């Protein structure tokens, strides 16, 4: 907790560590109330660092020091200094052994960082800086050590004791205790350390690697969850095979373990050989998990597995380089999902996520580059920018090189940097060397925050058969970066003729004939002119195919252009983008003026999409899904919360009315013959069916209402049950109350389903939701100590329910700040994350602005805020002077 203003850490101040720790030998005597940690550390001076004053400073927080020995000699109080967050030893030799013993209290650890208790088990979370809450250490990612871990605990309460690496021995001890020793042969930074103690059941399987080694795969869960691990295990095996084939990466240890815990701040953690997971991303059966949950599990399991190479074998030099591992690993998991599912649908999901979450971050007070240059609390920088924009930077480089060269570049990266802690620059250098390209300008993407705009104009010269595109790029200023430089980006272009056929993109100076289809051009200048030859008629441009760069493209498409692209474009992203643009245009007009006419040809285009037998149902569902209310809000100078919501309903009800027969047909046709199957095809059909139902439900009518109720009552998979429940609840009143009650009774023993019960209510647009959420906070099943619960109730209201959260009376803001103030002393990471939706208060009308500011100020005035909450709240109110200097 901070009392004085916390100081920012700056990239420019990076220095190599003065000491390295070659070996770490840890012994834990585990107990929920008091755990003792004994550490034996082998230090040596780092030859690559400049010599300091001969002292050593270790990180350590909330540790009770009970023993401190250097080279076997207990240090006297005069020889060291213990501070709140550090242990300073005044004089140390060049090589020495340090021995410490500390006490910690897992049951009091509500921040879920370090060693903590989750239900009956003990577990750890060390990234980014949690290891310092376990023992005194050089808690930084560029100190790589070999770890040996001895765990001692009561045999009955903690029969399973796990740590990183290979099992060395298991021994029974007197007094009902036992001891288990683990050894990890791979040097690693301490943020990858993990241990687990608990009474867990295990699902076992095997994987034979490409070189013929057999790897034991184990998923540990609480005994009653044993039958819900099958999907996670399949996903793990798929990911292991895929990484061998696509990136040539083989697994290295003999054992790969995953443990599911129910109290976890994020999705999962890639600790070496011992991944710890939020149980939401492990446990699934068709009756309890939605399709989205199944897909989430597959991609998070893959993501953590891929970290074994991108993160663990090669790690980050410092936390400013976080995107080195996160951006690359997200790219890898996106590619995996694209290849095991549908590439188009995956790319649309990537683009939607970026537009809904990363673009607003880039336009708000917390905007930061993919490689930030300063932070107050690193936990605030596990962001869509570092993760998802970071993945886009990797993707753009892959696009510039093409698949073969890119594979050679990643091979070189893995070979050169294995076992090292490196920077994003080291990654780009491998790409440059292999391709012979100069990526100096491209590197700006890592350092420059903000989403670039591409403003495009086109004209066609019918006599000279010339088509000209003029592209101007610019990036709005962000905090600390008033002036932006032009970026280097791939611009994938296709041109469609009036029959919807692809034209060749033939440019002046081409020596070879161009085939019809996509051509990847490169933009570098502020203004670029592209002159395409040989076009008799004016084509319709299909731009940024595959979302080739994370930018905002502005071009005066006509409705007819967009309908043409929606109908004919072969590029799934551009087809979807055309549908989004049509909807966005209509929705924004309806927001301003509810009497706006909805053109028949637009409705007809959606009808055609619904009827198209050649299109994947999942893609049709995407075409019929409107841009979110929060995305539309971002397009307005002053957000009109209620107008946008009304427009959404109006367009849904218009389509529901005018496409009634086709929607009914799609609903009936996609009633799944295999309702518990989770193949991409079955998932796509359920998505389309439930989107059709939602549009139909936007029109009042007994027939469809009964359909929805029947679906709720008879569905045997959670996707259909939940889709129907949401609609019934949104409908309001008793229509939703009885199903909610039934749902609760049916699932009261399954916490992950009860999370859904909370979130359906909190994300409902029905009146009085804020009050209802306040009421639910007093429900016996609600607890601020479980992050999944907090996200499912408070997160759902504040992050996924614009119209109710931004209620004009300010009640949503008040609820949020009340929760943040209560949660901050318990779990600062989650508290800081919750604040996100009010950080962009400047974008709202004067009344809401004042209310949001008041709540932010109320939070900030509190005496003992965490650094996490202090950083976001103060940056939102612009009270951090350092920010301006940090460009
Ligand atoms: N590396 C972890 C995230 C740790 C977050 C710490 N606040 C999970 C992941 O990205 O795979
Ligand atoms: Zn990750």
UniProtKB/TrEMBL annotation:
Domain Peptidase M1 alanyl aminopeptidase Ig-like fold: 450-555
Coiled coil start-end: none
Domain of life: Bacteria
GO biological process entries: proteolysis
SUPFAM superfamilies associated with the record: Leukotriene A4 hydrolase N-terminal domain (SSF63737), Metalloproteases ('zincins'), catalytic domain (SSF55486)
Catalysed reactions, semicolon-separated: Release of an N-terminal amino acid, Xaa-|-Yaa- from a peptide, amide or arylamide. Xaa is preferably Ala, but may be most amino acids including Pro (slow action). When a terminal hydrophobic residue is followed by a prolyl residue, the two may be released as an intact Xaa-Pro dipeptide
Domain Peptidase M1 membrane alanine aminopeptidase intervals: 232-445
Xref: InterPro entries: Aminopeptidase_N-like_N, Aminopeptidase_N-like_N_sf, PepN_Ig-like_sf, Peptidase_M1, Peptidase_M1_dom, Peptidase_M1_pepN, Peptidase_M1_pepN_C, Peptidase_M1_pepN_C_sf
Enzyme class: hydrolase
Domain called Aminopeptidase N-like N-terminal: residue spans: 104-192
One Pfam family per UniProt: Peptidase_M1_N
Ranges of residues in domain Peptidase M1 alanyl aminopeptidase C-terminal: 560-877
Keywords annotated in UniProt: Aminopeptidase, Hydrolase, Metal-binding, Metalloprotease, Protease, Zinc
NCBIfam families (alphabetical): pepN_proteo
Function field: Aminopeptidase N is involved in the degradation of intracellular peptides generated by protein breakdown during normal growth as well as in response to nutrient starvation.
Name this polypeptide is given: Aminopeptidase N
Organism: Thiocapsa imhoffii
